[in-house]
Hints:
heterodimer, A: mainly alpha, Growth Hormone, Chain: A, two-stranded antiparallel ribbon, 2 strands, globular, B: alpha/beta, Rossmann fold, 5-stranded parallel β-sheet, Rossmann-like_a/b/a_fold (chain B), Universal stress protein (chain B), UspA (chain B), MFS_dom (chain A)
Amino acid sequence: xxxxxxxxxxxxxxxxxxxxxxxxxxxxxxxxxxxxxxxxxxxxxxxxxxxxxxxxxxxxxxxxxxxxxxxxxxxxxxxxxxxxxxxxxxxxxxxxxxxxxxxxxxxxxxxxxxxxxxxxxxxxxxxxxxxxxxxxxxxxxxxxxxxxxxxxxxxxxxxxxxxxxxxxxxxxxxxxxxxxxxxxxxxxxxxxxxxxxxxxxxxxxxxxxxxxxxxxxxxxxxxxxxxxxxxxxxxxxxxxxxxxxxxxxxxxxxxxxxxxxxxxxxxxxxxxxxxxxxxxxxxxxxxxxxxxxxxxxxxxxxxxxxxxxxxxxxxxxxxxxxxxxxxxxxxxxxxxxxxxxxxxxxxxxxxxxxxxxxxxxxxxxxxxxxxxxxxxxxxxxxxxxxxxxxxxxxxxxxxxxxxxxxxxxxxxxxxxxxxxxxxxxxxxxxxxxxxxxxxxxxxxxxxxxxxxxxxxxxxxxxxxxxxxxxxxxxxx
Amino acid sequence: xxxxxxxxxxxxxxxxxxxxxxxxxxxxxxxxxxxxxxxxxxxxxxxxxxxxxxxxxxxxxxxxxxxxxxxxxxxxxxxxxxxxxxxxxxxxxxxxxxxxxxxxxxxxxxxxxxxxxx
Lengths: 476, 118
């Protein structure tokens, strides 16, 4: 397929076809190492799911401080996503990822050995900085090294690495809880496992190349060519230099727009649509399941021993959903359609969870019904709202608005995530499963409507066509 | 000699552009058009005997339109700046700031401000 034909890229540069060879292996190694960033991201966000219960007793957490332990990571991530973009522009992609791996390790050790909440929260903030940073730096690193033909799937693969990381965290937590559940401070063992992928990322990144795009943006053309020679055939590397220079130029252009441009109605309108889908995605409560799944299942009626194991099935569902989306659906269904279907579908799931929790008598049947419905919720979200929202965001903004627009969207997304994570334990303690998912149901209905009103369809239309119709006030 | 016009993506932008074209014609100067919007600017409405150069904003340094215009004034040694102004709500100004107000206060050359009929 993409290997057989040569391809004229957007810059009009015709590139020789990709051919197998030793450079191909090198590229694969680069992709695997960088994906450790996504894996770590997932592991660190998912690891509390299972570790939280024993930690609550040890550190004497109430529902507010419990929320704080979870959401402090997300606040750190919001800061990280803001700072690391700049850091990777000035220091370089490779150095930034190496530094992030070190911060991952430092943050992990902080959480593992935290004697009190006073150390735990700052350690989670530090860890969050690395998580948010990785969410920005890893996709950039991968896309700048990957050949045009493989660029699209690589970003999605990073999303998949994140859910695989979360699933692995659930699996390891279940195993550790099964083996050493009676040990005091068993949650420390669970958190300690995060150190392994951090070390792997650090050691791996030391041997990885800097990206050609960054080198060119610093005027280091010879080094850029040398890197391309490592990961492409010789003829292709020379041909790609022109393309990379064009992309570096485009990158500069993407940084043009800023807050004053929001005075223009059509720009404001796109920004609004972007912020709405970012918030809508988080208000589905996906991450409350990924962070608090074990606790949720215990409240639903699972025993302390069974809940961590049942929780693994939620992680598996996320991976299945993510794969279906990425390998089957993503380019077959228009973005607007898949996102709105997903929002309506998740809102229905919320409704069913409310009914099951309110109407069924306590017992095994209620517990397993709720598990099945939450698993369905996770599946629907991963198929329709995770990768499609990211892709849609990146397509929504016209070039000169992209840097600012994506920056704002990602920040809003992390803050919405933090808000849900912070309030979830309090919601559950006040309203139980019925009240909590009743809240998600109402929010879901509101955001489905807002999305339906504001979101233009971005797929199957070139960026120029989109820009044209936005400016004429047509947002469909 | 050159005069500069700041043209945002709005009615006052179009108004400023036509006023600046008349001004350039009267003074017998070139006209440099600073396109403050994010899309390409259509200058078809301007009189053709005025020599006209369109400058787009590009990159982080031009993120603030005021900086982009002030740079252009110094860079081209312009003798006058033309802008369009419009009544704004205090809330709108508080949130987004006023580009016209900052240009009026910071421009090193005389500013011609034209109003949009309301």
